[in-house]
Amino acid sequence: MMNRVVITGMGIYSCIGKDLEETTQSLYQGKSGILLDLDRKEFGYRSGLTGYIESPNLKGILDRRSRIMLSEQSEFAYLSTVEALKVACIDQKFIDINNIGVLFGNDSSAKAVISANDIIREKKETVMVGSGSVFQSMNSTVTMNLSTIFRLKGINLTVSAACASSSHSIGLGYMFIKHGYQDCIICGGAQEINIYSMANFDALGAFSVREDTPQKASRPFDRDRDGLVPSGGAATLILESLEHAVRREARILGEVIGYGFSSNGAHISNPTIEGPQKALEMALEQSGIRIQEIDYINAHATSTPVGDATEAKVIFNVFGDTSPYISSTKSMTGHECWMAGASEIVYSLLMMENGFIAPNINFDNPDEDSAKLNILAETKETGINCFLSNSFGFGGTNTSLIIRKWRNN
Amino acid sequence: MTKTEIIEKIIPFLVEEFEVEVDLIKPEANLHETLQLDSLDYIDLIVIIESSFNINVTYEDFQNIKSFDDFYCFLDSKMNTSQTSITN
C-alpha cells in the first residue's frame, strides 16, 4: 500500500528573504534580489550580475567544530533547515528517537576546493588547509553536515543533478516515503554564491549583461531577455507520510501528488521539447488530476533565449488553451541553480498559503512562444489549489513536481 | 624567541581558535582537556603553530604533551633546534 506524502515544514535563506516572512513580502511586492558585483568584473567575469545574500554569522549558534566544517552553502542550508524544523514543530528530542533522513540537492563546492588548493600552492604543505577543508569541499558537504548537526539517522545522501538537483531531492524523498522506506525526510537544496562558483558557467556566455539595470536583467519569457543571472542560498522542506504527520498532529502545508522526471538524451546543455514534456506528462498522470486543475505553474524559465522558448512550447503543448497562471520567480531571485527546485516549491507554497501568485517581473513584451501563455507580469491575488513546478538541468535532466493544497480525504 | 615570548604569542591564538576563556589556560592545566581537542582539532593546532612560528610539527609530537607547560617546552625546544639549524 502506498503512503500519501505531505509537507509539514519549510524554510528559506535566499536573496529575497532570510526567512519565510521576509520572502513572502518580497514575492508579493515583486522585489528583486539582484545586483552588480564589481569584484566579479575585476576577476574576469563577462557578467558581474548576481543574486546577493548576506553571509550568516553562526558564532554563538553552533559550536566551533560544527562551524568550521560548514561550506558556504552548508551555512545557508543549516539556517533554512532550522526554520523548516521549527515550522514542522520537530525538535531535537523528536529527531533523536525517530529515523529521519536527509536528501539535499547540491552540485558543487568550488570555493572550498579552490581556497584549499591556493593554500597548498603557497605553503607547500596540505595540513595547512586545516581540519574543516575536506568536509567543505565535497559535493555531499551539505548532507554530511546537516546529518551530523541534527543527529539524523535515516537516509543520508546528496542529489547532484545540476539545476534539477533539489527538485529531484524532493521527488526522491516523495518516493522513499510513498513506498514506506522512510516516514520523514528533510529535503531541500543549497547553492554557493561566491566568485569561484560561477566562473566557468560565466565562460559559456549564458549570463545576462544588462549591467546598467541589474534588477531588470532577469526577465524570463520576455522578448528582450539576454541570459540568466546566477544566484544562490538554501531552501528546506520537511516531507512526511500522512500517517506520521497526523499521528503527531502536524500542520500540513501541502501534499506532493506528482513527481515526473526524464532525461533528454541529447545535447548536454541545449534543451529539447520531448524531454521536459515527458516529465510534465508523467507528473500529471501520476497525480491523477486533469490539466484544468493546475492553477499555477512555477516555470523553470531562467531568462535564456532558447531555454524559455522551449519551456513555453512544452507548456503550451501540454496545457494548450487551459491557460493556468504562470510566473518564473527567477525573475526576482535569479537562477538559484542547485537550490532552485526546492526554493521554488517554498515560494509556491508561500503563495498558496497567502492567497496570491507572485509576478514574473520584467515581463514587458512577450515573444511568439510566451505570447500564447498566461504569464503574470503583476502580482495576482487569487487562491491556488494545485501548482506545478518545473526544474531542468544541464545534461538534460528534467523534473516536474505537483503539489496540492492539503485536503483530508 | 624566549619561552616567555612563545607563551605570549601562542595563548591569544589558542583562545581565538578554540574559543576558551584565557583564565583556563594555566601551565599545569591539561592541554587536551582544556581545549577539548579531538583528533581533527590537532590539525588546526598544527596550522596555528606552523603559521605562528614557522616550524614543522606532526600529530605524533603531541603524544608526550600533557600540560600547557609541556606544550610550551616543546615549542621552545623546536624553536631552538630550528634556530640552531639555521646558524650551523
Could you walk me through the main structural features you see in this protein, from its secondary elements to its overall organization?
- The complex is a heterodimer of chains A (409) and B (88).
- Chain A has 409 residues and is of the alpha/beta class.
- Chain A folds into two domains: 5-247, Thiolase/Chalcone synthase (Peroxisomal Thiolase, Chain A, domain 1); 258-404, Peroxisomal Thiolase, Chain A, domain 1, CATH 3.40.47.
- Chain A has helices spanning 20-29, 38-43, 64-69, 72-87, 92-97, 110-123, 133-137, 141-149, 165-178, 199-202, 242-247, 274-287, 305-319, 330-333, 340-354, and strands at 5-14, 34-36, 49-51, 101-105, 156-159, 184-191, 233-241, 254-263, 296-298, 325-327, 356-357, 374-375, 380-381, 386-393, 397-404.
- Chain A has an eleven-stranded mixed beta sheet, with helices on both faces.
- The radius of gyration of chain A is 20 Å and the shape is globular.
- In chain A, 58% of the residues are buried.
- Chain B is an all-alpha fold.
- Chain B has helices at residues 3-18, 31-34, 39-53, 68-87.
- Chain A binds chain B through residues 64-65, 68, 123, 125, 127-128, 130-131, and chain B through 17-19, 38, 40-41, 43-44, 46-47, 50-51, 56.
> Helical segment tally of chain A?
15
Count of individual beta strands of chain B: 0
- For CATH, the homologous superfamily of chain B is named as ACP-like
The proportion of residues in beta strands of chain A is 15-25%
Q: What do we call the CATH homologous superfamily of the largest domain in chain A?
A: Thiolase/Chalcone synthase
**How far do the termini of chain A sit from each other?**
16 Å
* SSE string of chain A: EHEHEHHHEHHHEHEHEHEHEHEHHEEEEE
- Reading off the top of the CATH hierarchy, the class of the largest domain in chain A is best stated as Alpha Beta
Compute the average pLDDT of chain A: 97
- Count of domain modules of chain A: 2
- Classify the helix fraction of chain B into a percent range: 55-70%
Radius of gyration of chain A: 20 Å
Total DSSP E strands of chain A? 15
Report low-confidence residues of chain B grouped into runs of 5 or more.
none
Structural class of chain A: alpha/beta
Strand content of chain B: under 5%
Report the oligomer: heterodimer
